[in-house]
């Protein structure tokens, strides 16, 4: 049986953390866990959940305020029950389908679930199928349609830079953007398979794996813990039922406060990084990579909670940390008045369009 572990890693000498492994999510398989009856019941409930996850109101049902409040309380109660002990909500980060999305009717593949065909999804999946041994011939209609879609939309040259990164690893492009954990790990292995740098990468593989109803999958990133928690807090606050779920919100409040980055990375300017002190990252603060929109959402969440009595939601965040967060947000304002998400503009739009490694469209 698979078990979800939260915040573990302190006993592993190869792992390091700047905030006590806050929000870390890893799955561990225990072959001795669960009796046959418990495993059978678990499988049964998974099937029930899949079939009954949507329960629509009948057309004849009168939607009154009482009905809405009852439904709302049920939703909040259920969502509170799956909160982790450190205050965040664990979950996968698999919205972007890099390898196995379904082909669309027009012959292309999408970038994310149920999305329209994109050059990203089409190029990566087409090349993957060719590497797996699929042959472009008269009998392989799907592969032929995929190739036609790519050529009719500008060819692989029109693919975004993130797609070109993957295509370069397939041997189709000579290009390098060192920001993906797996590629960084391979580079360390090439330099020295027995090095500490490579060995420290190995236990972090588990941070990118997630078990769901349809099996194990790889996450795009270690998670979006701070982002999800901030938006969840805002949703709870908007219901007017915050006092009924004080325990849940208090834990979420603590997580947001603990996930805030407290200091800048050493010599960050020499590495062309932005300031990170008082910001929030997309995930849990481990990497110190400040994200402006996550910082804004977390800032909004703690400001909303500061208006509620501490007896219900815990002590408010310190004022100086709020001021520093605002200063961090303002540091992302560009000369033209726009606001960047991860780093300020440093060159012309044409150059940024060519080298932006996080572009997926």
From TrEMBL:
It comes from the Eukaryota. One of its GO terms (cellular component) is lipid droplet. Pfam families: SQHop_cyclase_N (PF13249). Residues 104-173 form the Squalene cyclase N-terminal domain. GO terms for biological process: triterpenoid biosynthetic process. GO terms for molecular function: intramolecular transferase activity. This is Squalene cyclase N-terminal domain-containing protein.
């Amino acid at each position: 049986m698979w078990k979800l572990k939260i915040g573990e890693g302190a006993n592993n000498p190869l792992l390091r953390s700047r905030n006590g492994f806050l929000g870390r999510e890893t799955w561990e398989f225990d072959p001795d866990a669960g009796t046959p009856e418990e495993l059978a019941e678990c499988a049964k409930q998974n099937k029930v959940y899949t079939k009954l996850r949507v329960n629509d109101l009948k057309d004849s049902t009168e939607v009154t305020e009482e009905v809405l409040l009852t439904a709302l309380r049920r939703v909040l109660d259920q969502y509170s029950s799956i909160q982790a002990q450190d205050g965040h909500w664990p979950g996968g980060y698999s919205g972007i389908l890099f390898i196995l999305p379904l082909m669309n009717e027009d012959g292309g593949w999408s970038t994310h679930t149920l999305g329209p065909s994109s050059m990203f999804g089409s190029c990566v999946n087409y090349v993957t199928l060719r590497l797996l041994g699929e042959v472009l011939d008269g009998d392989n209609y799907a592969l032929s349609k995929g190739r036609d879609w790519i050529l009719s939309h500008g060819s692989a040259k029109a693919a975004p830079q993130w797609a070109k990164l993957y295509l370069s690893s397939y041997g189709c492009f000579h290009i390098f953007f060192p920001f993906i954990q797996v590629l960084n790990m391979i580079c360390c292995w090439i330099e020295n398979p027995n090095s500490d740098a490579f060995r420290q990468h190995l236990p972090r593989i588990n941070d990118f794996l997630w078990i769901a109803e349809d099996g194990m999958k790889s996450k795009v990133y270690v998670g979006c813990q701070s982002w999800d928690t901030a938006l969840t807090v805002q949703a709870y606050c908007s219901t007017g039922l915050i006092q009924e779920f004080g325990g849940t919100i208090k834990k979420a409040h603590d997580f947001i406060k603990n996930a805030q980055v407290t200091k800048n990375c050493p010599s960050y300017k020499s590495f062309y990084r932005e300031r990170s002190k008082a910001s929030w990252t997309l995930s849990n603060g481990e990497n110190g990579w400040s994200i402006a929109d996550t910082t804004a959402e977390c800032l909004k969440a703690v400001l909303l909670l500061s208006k509620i009595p501490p007896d219900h939601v815990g002590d408010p965040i310190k004022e100086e940390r709020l001021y520093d967060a605002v200063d961090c947000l303002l540091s992302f304002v560009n000369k033209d008045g726009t606001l960047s998400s991860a780093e300020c503009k440093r060159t012309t739009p044409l150059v940024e369009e060519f080298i932006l490694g996080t572009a997926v469209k």
